[in-house]
Amino acid sequence: MRRHHDDEVHEHEIHEHDRGLSYDLPVLARRRMIRLMAGVGAGLVPLVGCTADDASSPAAADPPSSPSAGAARSAECATVPEETAGPYPGDGSNGVNVLKESGVVRSDITRSFGDSAGGTAEGVPLTFTLTVVDAASGCGTPKRGAAVYVWHCDREGGYSLYTEGVADENYLRGVQETDDRGEVTFTSVFPGCYTGRWPHIHFEVYGSLADATTATAITSTSQLALPKDVCDTVYATEGYESSVDNLSRLSLESDSVFRDGHDQQLAEVKGSVEEGYTATLTIAV
């Protein structure tokens, strides 16, 4: 599995993530310690991803009728590379831990909660659904009762809890337990594109909601990529002006995280600026 340095660089500033491997190693070490302390004797389970079509197709949904059929379905459920959480996870591995705060379990992540400033993230509406399924079933069996923590930047490219100006906010972060279909759905806004990174959404998968809200036993960490055509359309709207130039200097093939393969991380996105967008991605653990 791969883990990249996030290269989350904001223009005209020198950030922690600009310090290279010497800075990343302590952060990653802290994350590994969290996992070891959780006592997962069986080791980490790889995160695997499928397209939405894979999860809903008869070949993925039906139980294998023969060993060869099962092997074919497993091949369709390709492994999603594990990625860095970056310098702004908010899960306790790099400073603040929002996962232990009351109110973090929610579906609408556009507003801050608790004792924070109470701000609301502005932008083009985006509702995204992650479907967590069992890898051993070839993406055919939903993982009920798992949990997913998501976070992403606002339309200006800032991260709540960390970036100057929004450090007192905790919007665009939230946790949910997967339902009977293995799904979690979040209401948010379309993230901006900042210097050095392709537009993306971070997520961590946990074995249970209890694990997530105590920030222990992370199953895996990865990132969802957003398609270029949709990004171009969204970034032509008010409030995303800086994203236009930033995106023009990037491609999925040059991005530090997605450049060695993004097929299992690229979301399917539908909708419009006027009515909002929906994004879907199936992941298997």
State the helical fraction: 10-25%
The coarse overall form would be: globular
Overall pLDDT? 80
Largest sheet: 6 strands, mixed
- How many separate helices? 7
- Strand residue content: 15-25%
By secondary-structure content and strand pairing, the structural class works out as: alpha+beta
Cα distance spanning the termini: 13 Å
Number of strands: 10
Order of helices and strands: HEHHHEEEEEEHEHHEE
Layout: helices, strands, pairs:
Layout: H1 21-37, E1 48-50, H2 52-56, H3 58-61, H4 67-76, E2 125-134, E3 141-142, E4 147-151, E5 173-177, E6 183-189, E7 200-206, H5 209-213, E8 218-225, H6 228-235, H7 241-248, E9 268-272, E10 276-284
What does this structure look like?
The chain has 285 residues and is of the alpha+beta class. 20% of the residues lie in helices and 21% in strands. It is built from 7 helices and 10 strands. Strand 9 and strand 10 form a beta hairpin. Mean pLDDT is 80; it is low at 1-5 and 7-75.
